[in-house]
Amino acid sequence: MSLDTALGQLVDDKKLNDETLLRLIAQAQESALGELYDRYSRLVYSMALNSVDDPALAEEITQDVFLRIWNKATTYQVEQGKVITWIASITRYRSIDMLRRLKVRPEGNRAVWAEEDDEPFESIDPIDIEEEVQLNQRSDNIRKAVAALPKDQRQALTLAFFNGYTHAEIAQILNEPLGTIKTRIRLAMQKLRQTLRY
Amino acid sequence: MAVEEHLSELLPAYALDILDESEARTVSSHLAGCSGCRAELHAYRQVMEDIPLAMAQADPPVYLKEKILKQAASSEKSPVAQPSKNWWHDLKSRLLPAAPLLGMVSLVLIILLGASNLFLWQRLNQVQTDHNRLATVPLMGTDLIPGATGMLVISADGEHGTLVVDGLPVLDPSQQYQLWLIKDGQRTSGGVFSVDEEGYGSLWISSVEPLASYQGVGITIEPSGGSPAPTGERVLGGEL
Question: A22, A76 in Cβ contact below 8 A?
Fold first, then answer.
């Protein structure tokens, strides 16, 4: 059995977890990158689009993120967190970099948050059913928690999380005092933490 | 450290990475000596991990996957440097007076290089044949755990590999599975691993010697952290 055939069979059968896929990507197995793309491209593209508010730029960021994974898979350490966290972090910083480089300034009015009755994230790591159930639960909890935030706190959090703006930049964009913005962001994060019981 | 000295109010923004440089430095140095704030920061980072799950979702264009896979495949190739035209012209003008002698030397070099290339090409073919044969190694369970299966996937250069196993029982926390790389009767540890509730486990193998140089592999049950040499019965094995 050739390498590609054997790996292709394992990948097609969805028998490999995320960590194993990354190890195979580190060994330049393209089928493993394809499977990881199937699992996380929606997450990456959505995060990028919610950040830059431009489909063409979001596509470019998605491409950059997966090529970075392809080239840097060996840098992932299990101790640093789950693969989904690692990928989301790469995507967030890549999106913020793009905004800064192009000096794009979304106004924070885009509807970046899911409605409570939207479908939860689809199965991401298909071999771990327990993980999938937990992910759906987390998805449901965070949506309710975000929806419960006052509108001004949600808007400040959007600009901080998706756009990476500093307190001062957000204050300027929203034409509000710096202290007000600091308070809104702090209260938003504290409420989310309390609601999610972390 | 007294409670009033904690930096709790800055931690949400620190987790979001939106503090200015001096504030971020202050928080970083405080965190180094404050376990309470580190625990609080950990909680905010968990919130950060969940936030993407609350966002509106959109599907990427259907053609994007193929585009990325093509780029990944081509990125394996090293860029080829283009020689500078000026540099070439400069060299040519310097060497022109010695052209007849250089011609004779070049002819000899071409013959030598041709012979050398032929030799290397034959060696390469042999190595590639070996690698194709060694790329994947199926592992079979022994009488102890006959339902166990596994596969060892060796990288194209034969240096590294990944072990994937299925159907192995979950062990007591004081025990782990250990991979042994076998050559001339000697067993070298290839790492330890555990399996999940479904009996699935994997291990990234990076040995001192190329994996392709070993003759076989075996997996035994050992005390957690591994043993210097096998002490348990073999539960899974295969020949390279």
Answer: yes
Q: Which of A11, A66, A158, A180 to mutate to test the interface with B (most CBs of B within 10 A)?
A: A66
Judged by a CB distance cut-off of 8 A, whether residue B23 touches chain A is no
Pairwise CA distance, residues B216 & B179, whole Å: 11
The string of pLDDT tens digits covering residues B66-101 is 999 999 998 863 333 333 344 444 444 445 555 655
Check CB contact under 8 Å for B18 and A1: no
Nearest alpha-carbon partner for A128 in B168, B196, B167: B196
Distance from the Cα of A9 to chain B's closest Cα (Å) equals 12
B21 to chain A, minimum CA–CA distance in Å? 10
Alpha-carbon span A125 to A137, nearest angstrom: 15
Residue from the list B17, B72, B156 with its beta carbon closest to the beta carbon of A70? B72
- On whether any CB of chain A is under 8 Å from the CB of B7, the answer is no
- Report the complex ipTM: 0.89
Instruction: Tell whether B15 is within 8 A of chain A (Cβ).
Output: yes
Alpha carbons within 13 angstroms on the beta-carbon side of residue A32 total 24
Alpha helices in B96-138 (DSSP H): 99-134
The model's pTM: 0.64
Within 10 angstroms of residue A173's Cβ, the number of other Cβ atoms is 18
Using one digit for the tens of pLDDT, what is the confidence trace for A90-133? 999 999 999 988 877 766 556 688 887 777 766 566 566 777 78
